[in-house]
Amino acid sequence: MKHLFEVVNRIFAFIVPISDFLWNFPKDVDAYARIPVLGQFSFAMLLLIGSGIYFTIRMRGVQFRKFVRSIRIATVRTASETGISPFAAFMLSSAMRVGPGNIMGVTGAVSVGGPGAVFWMWVAAAFGMALAFVEATLAQLYKEKKDDQYVGGLPFYGMKILGNRRWVGIALSVLFIGYALLNVPSQTFHLFTALGSVASTVAGTTYSRTSGVYYGIGLFLIVYISAIVLGGLKRVVKVVNVWVPVMAVLYCGIVLTLVFLNWRLIPFFFGAVFSGAFSPEAVFGGAFGIALQQGVKRGLMANEAGQGTITMAAAAASNDHPVEQGLVQSMGVFFDTMIVCSMAGFVSVMAQLWTSPSGIVWEAIREDKLLVFMTAAKQLAPGTAFDAPVQALLSLCYALFASMTLIGMITFAEISANMISRKRTFLLGLRATGALFLVPFGVLTVLADLQLGNIWYLADMLNILVVFANVPILLIGQKHVFRALEHYERTGGKEGFVSKRDIGLDSPYWTQESHDA
Questions:
Q1: Count of CB atoms within 10 A of residue 233's CB?
Q2: What is the pTM of this model?
Q3: Backbone φ and ψ of 32, nearest 5°
């Protein structure tokens, strides 16, 4: 088994420098890297944050002006005979957004950039809400009806906006499917190890990865994920409608309890976040650019804004106007970053592990993001009696985050695959590939105590390629979004929307026939 994994890693070794180049360009160019502050940002980050700022200005901060309305729309649980409700679309997209990165990514940003990274994470998310609005609105404008469901997203609007060339849609679909499915083994790894941690904590002993407990967990995961995913979109929606609120309430409840028990540190948290945003402590490098770069990176990567990943959920929704789903998904960015990600920020900052309390050697643990988070939580828990329960509950939350992201990846890959073929056998085969091949593959990496780092690099490379494809398409198709928004604000969303009549766009779904029906 070990030899097999080593062979797989060697096969994909050539991906590592390519992925690093795409994510870091042009930071590796010395002349660019020497530019103050700007030299800390890669082209990908500038593309995302720049587009977010641009859309915010052009739409006069629609994500803020219509925020209350977005909450009202997102809480609508009823849908028409076709598609899923706005609430279900919000939960489905949250399943993708609220993942292990909400814990590890934020903790890592604080570990490298200091408390000030949290402030810049908030700023990036505020502009990311505009990106989510644009891509979700486009997903609605170009969605298509398939039986009692809607399908759409990046491959569909990308094909239409780029000259209605089918090969463009297929290429975007293949790109996204590759990105989504290659993330399944890594999410399985996170899920498996988190459940193993829960089992060890509850039992009061450390289980080896070759123990019967781990084999039992692995078998359970394969059966559990397969039972959900193979049931199709409607079963997935039922599951995420239950588990996303549960995991969010459980996780936020635990963290807020720790915050309440350490309420005297709340002023320190906000003081450290706002002061550290502009004057980071020396232990974090003391450079303003580092805090800025880490915060913006986490704010953009955590909430998926502009990456095209939530467009499949946005297209699947039943709305009275395409702009409504744009508002729902912009609010989803707020929920993910301002609330869920901020919880990890509270724990990481309030514990102040970099001051080495209770004999903790900061330099020895700062590279292990999950260890830093768990250590910080233990530091905030009163006494030692609550250490094990807190660790078990947070590990369970981490597992739930990973499981929802894993299910979302397979489901969104299937929605995207409708661009290639809508045959039941093809789509069922895609589900089976994720649930019955890639999930077991991830399980094997845990049982073998190995990580396929180079495959994870391949997934990262495809992720950045999706960004490079999606954002330019958003910029090209922006006029349709602006016109739809103008119509929505002029009519209050109370008049029926016909795409050709109201904004001069031929839409597959928003036709006069659909309006009359």
A1: 23
A2: 0.91
A3: -75, -40
In whole angstroms, give the CA distance from residue 353 to residue 365: 9
Taking a C-beta distance cutoff of 8 angstroms, is the pair 499, 507 a contact? yes
Tell me the per-residue pLDDT of 60-113, one tens digit each, with 9 for 90 and over: 999 999 999 999 998 877 766 777 888 888 888 888 787 777 888 888 888 888
φ, ψ (nearest 5 deg) of residue 153: 115, -165
Listed in order, strand segments (DSSP E) in 55-194 are 144-146, 149-151
* CA-wise closest residue to 100 among 179, 186, 227, 176: 186
| Of the candidate ranges 29-43, 155-169, 213-227, the one whose mean pLDDT is the lowest | 29-43
Which residue shows structure tokens 């604000």?
A: 489
First to last CA, the chain: 58
Whole-angstrom Cα distance, residue 236 to residue 92?
8
Q: Find, among 136, 460, 122, 466, the residue nearest to 299 by Cα.
A: 122
pLDDT band, very low/low/confident/very high, at 291 (cuts 50, 70, 90): confident
CA 442 from chain center: how many Å?
20
Task: Locate the domains of the chain by residue range.
Answer: 45-491
**277's tokens:** 């945003």
Answer for the pair 473, 157: CB distance below 8 angstroms, yes or no. yes
Can the peptide bond before residue 185 be classed as cis, meaning omega within 30 degrees of 0? no
The pLDDT value given to residue 515: 64
Architecture of domain 45-491: Up-down Bundle (1.20)
Q: How far is 267 from 118, CA to CA, in rounded Å? A: 15
328 vs 267: CA distance, rounded Å: 32
* DSSP 8-state code for residue 283: G
Residue 302 has pLDDT above 80, yes or no: no
The one-letter amino acid code at 140 reads Q
Helix (H) / strand (E) containing 488: helix 478-491
What confidence tens digit (pLDDT) does each residue in 382-412 have? 877 677 888 888 888 888 888 888 898 999 9
- Residue 308 burial class via C-beta count within 10 angstroms: exposed 0-12, middle 13-18, buried 19 and up: buried
Radius of gyration (C-alpha) of the chain in whole angstroms: 22
Interval 312-336: pLDDT, tens:
999 998 888 999 999 999 999 998 8
Q: CB of 110 within 8 A of CB of 345?
A: yes
- In the chain, the largest separation of any two C-alpha atoms, in whole Å, equals 70
DSSP-derived secondary structure for 84-145? B-HHHHHHHHHHHHSSTHHHHHHHHHHHHH-THHHHHHHHHHHHHHHHHHHHHHHHHHT-EE
State the Cα torsion 290-294-297-299 to the nearest 10°.
Answer: -130
146: three-class secondary structure by DSSP = strand
Q: The tokens 């080896």 sit on which residue?
A: 208
CB atoms within 10 A of CB 383: 6
User: Residue 220 is encoded by which pair of tokens?
Assistant: 């359970």
Q: Are 323 and 488 in contact (CB under 8 A)?
A: yes
